[in-house]
Amino acid sequence: MGGGFYVSKVVGVVGIVFGAGAVATIIALAVVYSEELSKSSNAVGPTNGGSTVTAPGSSSVKPGTIVPTTKPSNEQWDKYRLPDTLKPDHYNLTLWPRLKPNAEGLYIFTGKSFVVFQCVKETDLILIHSNKLNYTKWEDGNLAKLSALGSIKAPTIKTTWLKETTQFLVVQLDGKLTAGESYKLYTEFVGELADDLGGFYRSEYEENGVKKVVATTQMQPTDARKAFPCFDEPAMKAVFHITLLHPPETVALSNGLEMAPVPVEEVGPEGPVNVLRTSFEETKRMSSYLLAFIVSDFDYVNSTTDNVLIRIYARKSAIEAGQGAYALNKTGQILKYLEKYYNVSYPLPKSDQIALPDFNAGAMENWGLITYRETALLYDINVSSNSNKERIATIISHELAHMWFGNLVTLKWWNDLWLNEGFASYVEYLGADDAEPDWNIKDLIVLGDVHRVFAVDALASSHPLSSNEEDIQKPEQISELFDAISYSKGASVLRMLSDFLSEKVFTNGISTYLTAFAYDNTVYSDLWTHLQMAVNSSGTSTSLPAGQTVHSIMNRWVRQMGFPVITINTNTGQISQEHFLLDPDSRPSVPPSEFMYEWIVPIRWMKTEVGQPQLWLQEKTANIPDMKVTGSAWVLANLNVVGYYRVNYDQSNWEKLLAVLSDRPESIPVINRAQLVDDAFNLARAKYINTTLALQTTKYLKGETEYMPWESALDNLDFFYLMFDRSEVYGDMQAYLRQQVQGLFDHYKTLTGNWKDVPSGHMDQYNQVNAIRVACSTGIKECLDLTAGWYKQWMNDSARNPIHPNLRATVYCSAISQGGAKEWEFGWKQFKNATIAIEADKLRSALACTKQPWLLNKYLEYTLDPKQIRKQDATSTIVYIANNVVGQPLAWDFIRDRWTYIFKQYGGGSFSFSNLINGVTKRFSTEFELKQLIQFQAEHNDFGSGTLAVSQSIERTKANINWVAENKASVQAWFHAETILPS
Ligand code: BES
Ligand code: ZN
């Protein structure tokens, strides 16, 4: 099946057949194509298939013109989903990315591909995905060649054309394909190797003053079709034979292990060129979205664990500096852990991981060749913080978890994405915990996922985890699913499930699921079936409530949006559940499911320091006599926040819990101390309790040194800052928090020997950062002098940065916000000169901390200039600026002014768009801002993957307006009364 389709000295059989004519066409095409592109200033790729293509029904439409779809048409090619007539078996694909621009200044790639597919239902139509590719037109005027594999003859092609909206290459046949027979479709094509972070794209960087180009891919969810024509749906699994042509001084990587590169002379549009031809071992049966092709001059470090070759690739200078070592060390260990966890061995012979200078997401689980942004893979002890290190360990663990769950067994359609991403987002903590057992990292899922998603899942504009298959059709609809609900609610409910089944039963079910569906596809209920099988064979040890199954319990959490608040009345023993809505006056956007906002809720709880047996709440209300307490006894529910719900109590139990917090905080598990704060603040937002009761949970922090409760409180107070940092409440709030944090600041000063040592615990290191951040932001002079002093020292001797990596982001921010242009310009210079992205990122966030509007405006301009700020970082930088109270209005004006441009240039990504909209509008709390937001929504009819974020922002703004009106006076009075002013 060898590649060999380009005319080369090593001529393949097919090469002789298709040879000369094809090359001539490609040359012509590439010229036409680049002319087309250079004519149109904002072209991102070839449009409607060059000069050869017209769509039936729109006969003499000029090529490249988008056909208005006024009359509704119901042809097969107007639908986004593939018909069920054909199934791919294998592909043979050769791609040749050009790492230098052509005469017109364009980077392109050329490709030749055939796919062998089976006809499962008789049809005279072949639909195969294709987007922004320009095809060679063959002698018969068509864009593809069709042959039959067996003894029968393939029907002739009637016509071929490209359907832009649904992204198909349409092949209409004169006769029918026969069910049960296999056919081969051959194409040659040209695409642009653009810097658009999707499909086959290019990433650029400078090394020793030389500009370098990497050709790389990001296929998920629907961009494999931008690299070659393919049946681009997750259930269309096939075997892929990949060949890459690349310059002699480069290496080529793909999913399979590479075979020895062969030097060949290729003839492309540019004439004969010496290249290397690298073919890869055929892949396993897999989905197209998991493919990866990379050409670079990167270097690597490697090791072997249990016969699996592990390699970490990165820029040569990064590898030379040892920045791949940490990832290499941890990968083998995490792979082993996951093999044990799944009880299925790693399915591939190798695991490559590569750090790319330009990458849209954090990382991507391509099977056997995982791609990362540099900050998510490269570690340097002299520059990286403990938080950077944790991110590397967890993200590796997350992507490796997908190698089985997602890659070996794949959900049939994107509507079930939540199970794939939610599962990896849960298991990432387990793998990282195994790699770094001293960190207690499993606890952090409560802050990182449960709290994070509670905030959005409590909105009326939330949505259920699972969507209907029919509702998810367009690429934008698919992209929109990569949200906090899929990731963090998915992770949270799976953690709860694993807990109430027990890890043993849970992993048994996972294991048989993975074995039963290996190399195949599933729907989420297949997992419930296997977990139920595991429950049934576990005997009596697992206690589901009588009459309930994994299906019946989990459907409640998966098919209806939101989560319950459990109210416990310790005077009566009455407990009840209710849909928790942050704005009690709002109405859910999704009509209630058949479950009517009732859940089957596992409740772990304790009574005055003594753990109690788990309970189930299956009805709206129940009477639990054990929960009735008197005297000083108290009840605490949702131990370790394993359950996906909030808990409210009667007033006297709240008061007793507050007393315990201040007198004997260690009687309450640290996660629950964080939870009491978070529940109280959110219950207050939803008007279940008074805001002042919520604020009271922060009083005990004076004596608290643990990270989780502090972080939880600061996250919640952050909302108060957003609402009040432009109002008269600000001064009192600052005074109160300054008073609360002083002890923590002093604690760390002592613990670190006057800021010389690093606290030993991972969580302590985090809380040290909190101590400095809050002490400085609330204006403790000693802190401000400390940070400004360190930064000045660095400015005086830029070769020696005296600031510990853990503290850098915070110290830079504090110093830049106190300083002026000199401090900012120094930071900018260091940003541009940084040799590791982790350092650059710290500066990039700190540069947004200046209080000078003119610097912030200049910085905003830089965000849309890829020479200054990489495209991958544009939206997060704008959000950093909006986080700054001075930058907020500037950022809002900026994105409104440039919206059309931003949307076009940066709209391809999945995460960034909703983050941008939510980030820039999160301070909104006035009628005037609401009006602006509504007007913004009306002015643009397309927000792509940010559509939901716009409606969420409107809902949030309305809620904020009400909240401020109701709480401003009492909050100010409370802060004022609770602050002991220095005499
Ligand atoms: N499959 C995703 C990457 C992805 C995200 C592709 C969105 C296309 C659209 C990958 O497994 C992932 O989830 N990456 C996360 C990191 C993870 C630790 C949460 C990311 O990129 O942030
Ligand atoms: Zn993932």
Automatic annotation (TrEMBL):
<dbReference type="InterPro" id="IPR034016">
    <property type="entry name" value="M1_APN-typ"/>
</dbReference>
<keyword id="KW-0378">Hydrolase</keyword>
<dbReference type="GO" id="GO:0005886">
    <property type="term" value="C:plasma membrane"/>
</dbReference>
<dbReference type="Pfam" id="PF01433">
    <property type="entry name" value="Peptidase_M1"/>
</dbReference>
<keyword id="KW-0479">Metal-binding</keyword>
<feature type="active site" description="Proton acceptor">
    <location>
        <position position="399"/>
    </location>
</feature>
<feature type="binding site">
    <location>
        <position position="402"/>
    </location>
    <ligand>
        <name>Zn(2+)</name>
    </ligand>
</feature>
<dbReference type="GO" id="GO:0004177">
    <property type="term" value="F:aminopeptidase activity"/>
</dbReference>
<keyword id="KW-0325">Glycoprotein</keyword>
<feature type="domain" description="Peptidase M1 membrane alanine aminopeptidase">
    <location>
        <begin position="326"/>
        <end position="557"/>
    </location>
</feature>
<dbReference type="InterPro" id="IPR024571">
    <property type="entry name" value="ERAP1-like_C_dom"/>
</dbReference>
<dbReference type="GO" id="GO:0008237">
    <property type="term" value="F:metallopeptidase activity"/>
</dbReference>
<dbReference type="InterPro" id="IPR050344">
    <property type="entry name" value="Peptidase_M1_aminopeptidases"/>
</dbReference>
<keyword id="KW-0735">Signal-anchor</keyword>
<feature type="binding site">
    <location>
        <position position="421"/>
    </location>
    <ligand>
        <name>Zn(2+)</name>
    </ligand>
</feature>
<feature type="region of interest" description="Disordered">
    <location>
        <begin position="40"/>
        <end position="75"/>
    </location>
</feature>
<feature type="site" description="Transition state stabilizer">
    <location>
        <position position="487"/>
    </location>
</feature>
<dbReference type="Pfam" id="PF11838">
    <property type="entry name" value="ERAP1_C"/>
</dbReference>
<protein>
    <recommendedName>
        <fullName>Aminopeptidase</fullName>
        <ecNumber>3.4.11.-</ecNumber>
    </recommendedName>
</protein>
<feature type="domain" description="Aminopeptidase N-like N-terminal">
    <location>
        <begin position="87"/>
        <end position="290"/>
    </location>
</feature>
<keyword id="KW-0862">Zinc</keyword>
<feature type="domain" description="ERAP1-like C-terminal">
    <location>
        <begin position="634"/>
        <end position="958"/>
    </location>
</feature>
<keyword id="KW-0812">Transmembrane</keyword>
<keyword id="KW-1003">Cell membrane</keyword>
<keyword id="KW-0645">Protease</keyword>
<keyword id="KW-0031">Aminopeptidase</keyword>
<keyword id="KW-0472">Membrane</keyword>
<dbReference type="InterPro" id="IPR042097">
    <property type="entry name" value="Aminopeptidase_N-like_N_sf"/>
</dbReference>
<feature type="binding site">
    <location>
        <position position="398"/>
    </location>
    <ligand>
        <name>Zn(2+)</name>
    </ligand>
</feature>
<dbReference type="GO" id="GO:0006508">
    <property type="term" value="P:proteolysis"/>
</dbReference>
<dbReference type="InterPro" id="IPR045357">
    <property type="entry name" value="Aminopeptidase_N-like_N"/>
</dbReference>
<dbReference type="InterPro" id="IPR027268">
    <property type="entry name" value="Peptidase_M4/M1_CTD_sf"/>
</dbReference>
<dbReference type="InterPro" id="IPR001930">
    <property type="entry name" value="Peptidase_M1"/>
</dbReference>
<comment type="subunit">
    <text>Homodimer.</text>
</comment>
<feature type="transmembrane region" description="Helical">
    <location>
        <begin position="12"/>
        <end position="33"/>
    </location>
</feature>
<comment type="similarity">
    <text>Belongs to the peptidase M1 family.</text>
</comment>
<keyword id="KW-1015">Disulfide bond</keyword>
<keyword id="KW-0482">Metalloprotease</keyword>
<keyword id="KW-1133">Transmembrane helix</keyword>
<dbReference type="InterPro" id="IPR014782">
    <property type="entry name" value="Peptidase_M1_dom"/>
</dbReference>
<dbReference type="Pfam" id="PF17900">
    <property type="entry name" value="Peptidase_M1_N"/>
</dbReference>
<dbReference type="GO" id="GO:0008270">
    <property type="term" value="F:zinc ion binding"/>
</dbReference>
